[in-house]
Amino acid sequence: MSTHHFNRRAFLRGIGVTMALPWMESFNVWGDEPTKNKPASEAPVRLAVVFSGNGFHSKEWWAKGEGKAMELGRVLTPLADFREKLTFVRGLYHEEARKGNIHSSQTGNMLSGAPIASGGEIRSGTSFDQLLAQTYGRSTKVPSLVLGCEHSNPSVHKNYSMLYSSHISWSSPTTPTPLELYPALAFDRLFKDAATPGDKSVLDAVLADASSLRRNISPADQRKLDEYLDSVRDVEKRIENAGQRGEVQGWRPTLAKPDIARPADGIPQDIGEHMRLMCDLLVLGFQTDTTRITTLKLNNDHSALRFPNLPSVQQKGNGIDYMIHHLLSHSDGEDWLKVNQFFMEQLAYLARKMDAIQEGPRTLLDNTMLMHCSSMMAGARHDNDQLPVVLLGGAGGRLKGGRALDYKDKPDRQLCRLFLSMMDKMDVRPKTFGDAKAPLAEV
Amino acid sequence: MNHATKVFALSVALTFPWLGGLAATADFQKDIRPLLNEFCTKCHSTKDHKGDLDLERFKSLDAVKRDAKVWLQVEEQLELGEMPPKDKPQLSAAQKAKLVAWVRGTLHDMALASAGDPGPVVLRRLSNAEYTYTVRDLTGVETLNPTREFPVDGAAGEGFSNTGAALVMSPALLTKYLDAAKDLAAHAVLLPDRVAFSPSTSQRDWTEERLAAIREFYARYTVKGGGSAVNLQGIKFDTKDGGVLPLEKYLAATLELRAALASNGGEGASANKLTSQIAALAIKHGLNARYLTTLWTALNDSQPSLVLDLIRTQWRAAKPADAPALTASIAQWQRALWRFTTVGHIGKRNGPSAWQVPVVPLAAAQEVRVKLPAPSSGNEITLYLLASDAGDGNEHDFAVWENPRLVAPGRPDLHLRDVREAVLTFQTQRERVAASVTKCLAAADEASALPDRSGLAQLAAKHGVDAPLLAAWLDYLGLGGGPVRVTSHLTKKLESANNYDFIKGWTGADALSVLANSSDNAVRIPGHMKPHSVGVHPSPKQRACVGWNSPVTATVRVEAVVQPVHSECGNGVTWSLELRRGGTRQRFAAGIAQGPKEVKVPPVENLAVQPGDLISLLVGPRDGNHSCDMTAVSLDIKTTDGKQWNLGRDVSPNILAGNPHADNLGHPAVWHFYSEPDAGGGADSIVPAGSLLAKWRAATDAAEKLRLAEALQKLLASGPAGLAKDAPDAALHRQLTALGGPLFKSQPPSSRRGEEAGSSTNTVRPVASAVGWALDPTLFGKHPDGSVLPAANLCVRAPALLEVRLPADLVEGCEFVATATLHRETGAEGSVQMQVLTTKPAGASGLAAGAAKELGGKSTWSDGERPVGSDTPILVRDGSGARKRTESALEQFRQLFPAALCYTKIVPVDEVVTLTLYYREDDQLRRLMLDPAQTAELDRLWAELHFVSHSPLKLVEAFEQLWQYATQDADPSAFTPMREPIKQRAEAFRAELLAAESRHVQAVLDFAPRAWRRSLTRTEQDELRSLYQKLRTQELPHDTALRMTLARVFVSPAFLYKSEQPAPGKKSAPVSDTELAIRLSYFLWSSAPDAELAALAAAGKLRNPEVLAAQTRRMLADARVRRLAVEFGTQWLHTRDLDTLDEKSERHFPTFKSVRGALNEEPIRFFTDLFQRDGSVLALLDADYTFVNSTLAKHYGLSGVKGDDWLRVDGVRKQGRGGVLGFGATLAKQSGASRTSPILRGNWLSETLLGEKLPRPPKGVPVLPEEAPAGLTERALIERHSSDPKCAGCHARIDPFGFALERYDAIGRLRAKDAAGLPIDSRTRTADGVELDDIDGLRTYLLTRRREAFERQFCRKLLGFALGRSVQLSDQPLLDEMLKQLTANEHRVGLAVQMIVRSPQFHDIRGRDQVAAE
Asked: According to the model, what pLDDT value does residue A248 have?
């Protein structure tokens, strides 16, 4: 086992901490600073990962052709306006996800491709968005924002913790990143100046507590406690950095302060409104350059959401309220399709908003990689031999849209290769990631 | 290995039922490896390791034994028949049996070898629930919910969210913890010597909490009631609404005690025995033993005492039911001897000294004034002059009625002595008046033409009438009086009011004024002055008047408006509109104006006026209270020929031009601004409208006038016989014949008497006997011993009752007035009570309680206290022995029976501006009832109130405000004496605040060990102190720095994590006692150890098995075990948070949302009850009871449950309930959004209740249609789906369970038909071939065929929850033993808990360097 020091944990050296990093062992560029090969006056590349659980309609997730002429399956029709900025990727998969059971064990590693521990343990892999947050994300006030629209389920299902079903972002192999479900609190995380007088002193004190506690506990406990140490240090850093923004030369975000009010407390009753608010916050975080990396989980795998707001095709005159998302996914009905489209409309909403924000010669969408994915192809089949992935945006000119890529029958079709490609566009270039050793040449 | 482990190891060796008693007999190399090679390692090879499984690598039994996990998996796959795959060569039955037996045997050996391993337990953060419970227990504040918006914790291990692996931390979460810690610290209340916590975060609420605590303290001893309102400038305050001694209960207790003593032979009770009897009685009735003793002693005391003797006598005669009557008697005296002041200004000059003050009903003399009542019958009014001996015998009791007389305004007094004679005189005079009516009216008719009264005598002579009588007629009729002269003009000029130079006017003393606004501006002075308006302000004793002196002869219409313009305060004003002419005044209208509304006086129409007539609008202070009495007035007079006078228009431009003031028409001295006394004002001599005299006045024809005059004469001579009482002529008759009437007031009968007793200069002799009226004149002027007294005085020896009959027509409108006193010489040592009564008293002896009354009035709110006396004082001479004796007797009563024990209102609002924020008066309570400890507690509560509220500092501000306010309309210097004490108290308080700072820091240091669940090192203590200091140096105030230090305690890993210190090396070792206590309390209460548990741990006693067992029992019986029900019970059953479940279609189940809270609660109640009463684990299956409230009962269709209260209902099995199978919560949770799901229910039963493992569903499962095709039941639909060979294996195991529960709909109600409207078929056949039907069949099946599996699953889950990890192979021996013990001990759930708590797993922790070996 090798030990790597990287930015995020560099401070730990000072207090004698070393980290064991299972699964990430293969990842050997920790010490490297991202290579900046973009002029400072250009807008940075942003990453937004949107996830929905239980897959899609088994026959209507497809895209053919190029550019304006691209044809889209019915699930994807809400994205029709963005065909020229759309990259459809077919046929990628995670080898590890094919083991274990049919839900949790293929969701908890959605963004890492890592093996998932069962039997009451919690272990996956650091997800690529969090990897980026720990390097690329350090230059913004909030390294990454992890949002959700559905509570996780505190139980163990078929020997796998349901944590896996509701967490795609992992800060470490044993740390699923908690999701923020409350729009108001997400807003606060972005824009509230957290520090009140004395915070810094309090954090210094408890950091010392933790360091002293660390000496007397077992190695396994030490690893657990490092989550705490890490977090305290992170919050301290944020306090230190408060008010120091703007020292970077060149590019300036188009918005200095949020232009929408803090959302109301609580969680909106209406799921559509909830998702819409979270989308607004995602865009706002990018537009103000408060964060560059956001994960938005629209629902859980194993989701219990219902959609009384969507008119049912199968039970005319009513909403799609008679079945929860997960069970609905076991069919290929028109209502299922309708729900799929509803999710894609959220993606379209994001794209439309981003595309309306001009950042120099390009729009925010052009500077973003907006990915939507799910942990299975079709809910009816729990099919994870190929995973649904669609990308919108231009990654600052590095991603050419208007294409439908198909890897189904190609070798080395690891989804982690796509992640390597995406990290590359943000100047983070690990030699390997998950089960992949090279990026996808075509992306 | 500790003792417990050894015991288990031994018993485990004896039975090991889960492996069917098999030992690993087969030889690995010889028997097993060949089988593996043939059937398994072709795929699960080192090279291919299909499914991540490499069985090839196990080359020896030792290698096998190092990897339990793999072989558990192998066992499971064989068991499920999953391996070898169906399309691969299969083991023969014998081969399979051999392989399975070997695997099991080997695992058995491995389990035994590692039994009791504490297992891998990773560092656990407090779960959200644990954090919340811990914080609530630490602070004692049950409403705190700091994790409300935290992300939901995950579950791991056995499926519980108390497992370290699932409890993560992140920067975002840490920020939430920091915010939560700061919020918790905001709930801290800083008290003088400690820090407490409150549900609230505001100083106001903290203060309210302290107030409530003090009131609660007072309420332990006192009751409410006895309110007495204080009327302050029209605002009514209740100064006494509590703090009353519950005297009746105490008296009843004394009566009970007396009866008890009597029945026990009475007298012989020893002092000790009496003390204990009193103590027992006090406890029985919730009384204060100390006061009960005092009361008992006083009631049995034989020392004479004036008032107490009355009570004692009554008490001795009282029966047990007489306590209320006794109480009433005492209350009467309490009212007489105590009174309550307003406390808002205690401390001001001449202000009250306390709230409850004694009344001293003693006086040397008493002014008696009695308004005469209405005649009791006919013309007779009776008074009783009583002189009693004041209850102490009549030695020296010579009482004198000095100068008793009848007094009426505007008339000379009529001495009581002279009444008999006056009766005769008056009768004569009335006859004379009646006889001269026609003559007098004829003369009056002529007199109306005279310019003045100079010719009156002549006129009288001409008509042969008495001149004074004629003058009286003229006055009454308002004739010939000449112009009215106003003599009481306001003379002082006011050039500006409140710095407005356009407000000017005329003023007198005490705010008396008439002001006018000459501008277009409306301003406040502080009353509103509208533009061009006139306002008047009375003084306490004077009316402010505006008068119009008619300059013309005309017929006019008069309009007037009155409007209080400072109506925010004050009690309003009185007003009247009057006409004065000659010596008469006629009142047109009068009333009270209060509040901002203007009063329009009804217009006076067609009033004939002549020059000199004065029409006035008068405004009085009302009840002598002139605060805020600024009143806008308007007076408008129009003649029929178009002339007009308007007060505002005429005088507002230049009011100071003169008083009297000219009008706008060129007449000088038309408007008069003057005052008159508020009392009296004379009888209203208004000729009744429609009466003979009114008609006479209106008549113009001489003959008609004469006829009317004659009729009137007749009326007066023969009386108003046959007329209704309110007929105009009846009223006229009363007016003209009354002694107080217009015709007699100038010459009352007594006026012609000389001072010499008995002599008379009256020329008219008595015409009839007056004997029987009043008193014999010879009684006056002499002492009973014969000596001479002043002539008008009446001396009696008490007891004496004199009956005085008075003729009503003579004395109507009079008051009886006298001075009652003791005779100077013979009564010097006497004591009497003298009263004038209107009803006859029962006797003339004895002592009357009387009532306190205020003497004199208060004019402004800054004035001091009014003197208070009794309405029935005991008359004693100052300095006499009688006075001393009486005083001390009254004080004895007061000491025993205070009217109130304490001032429970605490926050006084009995003054307009109150200067006492929190008033403490509980000296009576302390004196009579409290022991030193209770007094100390009360003192502490009060100190906390002042500390929390900062009242001494606030008082400084309040005082300044009051001062400002007082300068406006009162005398601020009254408050000067309060200034210095307030200032000093504030200074002292600042010092207190400063002194408390270090105690607060110490309080945080004392709190930290509780929060961190361990003692602090010296360094940690120093560090906390220095953090506080550091924050102070960052210029944070004490309060903030302290709260941040407290927040730091809450955000420390020592609080947030349950860390345990492992022993060095690889061996497991016991955790410390403190750590064991923490394990125990988080297991059973999801919270930190309470004081008792922590203390036992600290003392090193917890490891004692008996102590540990006793603590476990104690904790299981405690209400906090509800948390175990929630955290373990409902999380195991998957019903936790069902109250927020949003998975049901509102369209299909509109009632679900309203019942989900109750559905959620039922399992919690069930588990709580099970743990608390140590019930059987099997009750979860076979209980014939459950817990419901009315909502749930309605949902279930159970009858007879009302209200929101939860209760246990028995006999529910026959109604389809009882145990987990009948929980609506589980039935609903394991259903779809709109329909049931036998698959979900069956799967839940199989996995959750029985712990069965099912293989993963196959790929490519056929899709279910959304709705059952017509004619197909939902069940048939599933059966069709499940018959797919790929699915059948599992579904055959799970579906039957679900089918048996099909009679419950998707929200847990019983139903007869499914969603498709087809009849339910709940008959089914289990995978192991048992035919069963419905919930009963299923229950029986589980209790018989699957009892052990169910019970093992329960134990497994409970163990997993207790340990916070997955159950592993090495736990199997413990589970086996638990099963065995449960079976032998009625399946008591407490036993399962005890065995876990005793187990080495629970006691030990793995060594620091021990690596997972499962």
From this structure: 53
What DSSP string describes B878-939? Answer: TT-HHHHHHHHHHHHHHHH--S-SS----S---SSS---SS----HHHHHHT--HHHHHHHH
Mean of all residue pLDDT scores within chain B: 87
Q: What is the rounded distance in angstroms from the CA atom of residue B104 to the CA atom of residue B570? A: 96
pLDDT digit string, tens, across residues A241-259: 776 554 455 688 889 889 9
pLDDT at position B764: 36
Picking from B499, B500, B498, B494, the residue whose alpha carbon sits closest to that of residue B520 is B500
Residues of B in contact with A218 (CB under 8 A): 1062, 1406, 1408-1409
Tell me how far apart the alpha carbons of residues A387 and A378 are, in angstroms, rounded to a whole number.
9
DSSP characters for B210-250? Answer: HHHHHHHHHHTT-B-----EEEETTEEEES-SS-B--HHHH
Note the pLDDT of residue B1343: 96
- Is 70 exceeded by the pLDDT of residue B1105? yes
Q: How many residues does chain A have?
A: 443
Who's near B1090: CB < 8 A, 6+ residues apart?
B137, B1081
Among residues A50, A86, A43, A79, the alpha carbon closest in space to that of A286 is found at A43
Three-state DSSP class for residue A246: coil
Q: Per-residue pLDDT tens for B138-162?
A: 999 999 999 999 999 999 999 999 9
Q: Is the pTM of this model over 0.90?
A: no
Backbone angles phi, psi at B117, to 5 degrees: -55, 125
Residues in chain A closer than 8 A to B1259 (CB atoms): 381-383
Q: Which two tokens stand for residue B362?
A: 């003693």
Which of B178, B1053, B1408 has the CB atom closest to A210's CB atom? B1053
Neighbouring CB atoms inside 10 A of B756's CB total 9
Contact list in A for residue B1233 (CB cut-off 8 A) is 306, 321-324, 327
Report pLDDT digits (tens) over B1055-1084.
Answer: 999 999 999 888 999 999 999 999 999 999
List CB contacts (< 8 A) between A220 and chain B: 120, 122-123
pLDDT at B265: 62
- Tell me how far apart the alpha carbons of residues B1221 and B1127 are, in angstroms, rounded to a whole number: 19
What count of other Cβ atoms lies within 10 Å of the Cβ of residue A421?
A: 22
- CA–centroid distance for B766 within its chain: 71
* Residues of B whose CB is below 8 A from A99: 51-52
Q: pLDDT tens, B11-34? A: 333 333 444 444 556 788 888 888
Q: Nearest chain A residue to B1260 by CA: give it.
A: A381
Both tokens of B834, joined, read: 């003298």
Nearest to A198 among B1034, B1257, B1266 (CB): B1034
C-alpha span between B693 and B258 (Å, rounded): 76
Chain B contact present for A195, CB below 8 A: no
Average pLDDT over residues B929-948: 97
- Could you list the beta-strand ranges (E) of B136-292: 188-191, 194-197, 229-232, 235-238
Cα distances from B1071 to residues B362, B1063, B1110, in angstroms, run 80, 9, 20
Contact A295, A144 (CB under 8 A): yes
Give the pair of three-digit tokens for residue B338: 């105590």
Mean pLDDT of B82-109: 85
Q: Which of A301, A303, A308, A263 is nearest to A281 (CA)?
A: A263
A176 touches chain B (CB under 8 A): yes
- The CA distances from residue A247 to A46, A140, A427, in Å, are 20, 12, 21
Longest dimension (CA), chain A: 65
